[in-house]
Design goal:
- The protein is an alpha/beta fold and 304 residues long.
- The chain contains 13 helices and 12 strands.
- The two termini are 28 Å apart.
Length: 304
């Protein structure tokens, strides 16, 4: 199978999967329960989530390992099972994805703040190295370092993945609108600052996820593309901004709403589009239809 970056650079638009936390909760994950433990305790349910995104048309299937670093797992008394749970996560998604989909090993933030000296750079690097190696061993084609807000932490994660695996490395940060045309992470990092630092680190694909609905992502994509005209861009938007209704958190964007914003994202420079919090296979299915249509139009020269 070709590399993700080769396909993107050849002009193909790709579809990433949607939310995992949302789907795990629908499958019965309780508050305070460790999602990654499901890779060992409930592998069939985790497989069903991955398979549902395959059937919805996603080209890239993530792993149930977002909080799978040893710092996060220590909260549940599971630090000594870090390698086992990450490897299982990748094996499950690999089995669901088959040979014609890419498996993205999900690596989320450590939950520790370098700024507050809760962890050393060396400690973070080692935690990310451990997780990255285990995900590759389980069958991940690429590693997606996602929902980052601290640039230094993101750089350490990319470095650990690049130096210790053969996987392609993707990295997404979460931005908030801080002005009419400006965006920053909660740590004050702008899209342009992300691009400058992470491209130098050798990252293969950059982008943004979480924190925003799909309509709000277009401005962030424009900022990334303005900072670099060539880096492939991944976007995984929430199903809108969540609202609290009748004791539950509700994400308002329907599959149709999200699909209606895909063309604007592509025109802004996005090449891989998926979902984050609140999305499900129905959202991805509708996004995939639009992406398929654009790919067909590109092939016959009907897309600018």
């Amino acid at each position: 199978m070709e590399r993700i970056t080769d396909l993107v650079k050849a002009g193909h638009l790709l579809v990433a999967d949607g939310a995992w936390g949302t789907m795990l909760q629908s499958a019965g994950l309780k508050g305070g329960e460790c999602p990654e433990l499901w890779n060992a305790a409930h592998p069939d349910e985790v497989f069903a989530i991955a398979k549902s995104y395959v059937e919805a048309g996603a080209n890239l299937i993530e792993t149930n390992s977002f909080g799978g670093n040893r710092f996060k797992l220590a909260h549940y008394g599971l630090a000594d099972r870090t390698i086992e749970l990450n490897r299982a996560a990748a094996q499950i998604s690999r089995n669901a994805a088959g040979d014609d989909r890419f498996v993205l090993g999900s690596i989320g933030p450590s939950g520790k703040l370098l700024l507050m000296e809760e962890v050393t750079p060396e400690g973070l690097y080692e935690a990310f190295r451990e997780q990255a190696v285990a995900l590759e061993a389980g069958g991940a084609d690429a590693l997606v370092i996602e929902t980052m807000s601290d640039l230094e932490e993101a750089l350490l994660a990319v470095k650990a993945a690049k130096e210790n695996t053969r996987c392609e490395v993707l990295c997404t940060m979460t931005f908030e609108k801080t002005g009419e045309d400006s965006y920053h992470t909660i740590m004050g990092i702008s899209p342009a600052e992300m691009v400058a630092a992470l491209i130098q680190s050798g990252v293969d694909i950059l982008g943004t996820n979480c924190g925003n609905g799909i309509q709000e992502m277009t401005g962030i994509v424009k900022e990334i593309r303005k900072a670099d005209p060539f880096i492939p861009i991944l976007v995984q938007a929430n199903a809108g901004i969540p609202v609290y209704q009748e004791g539950k958190t509700v994400y308002p964007d329907t599959p149709e709403t999200m699909a209606s914003a895909v063309e604007a994202l592509v025109l802004a420079g996005a090449q891989i589009i998926g979902g984050c919090c609140g999305t499900n296979p129905d959202h991805i299915r509708r996004i995939a239809r639009v992406v398929e249509s654009i790919n067909k139009r590109k092939k016959v020269g009907e897309w600018t």
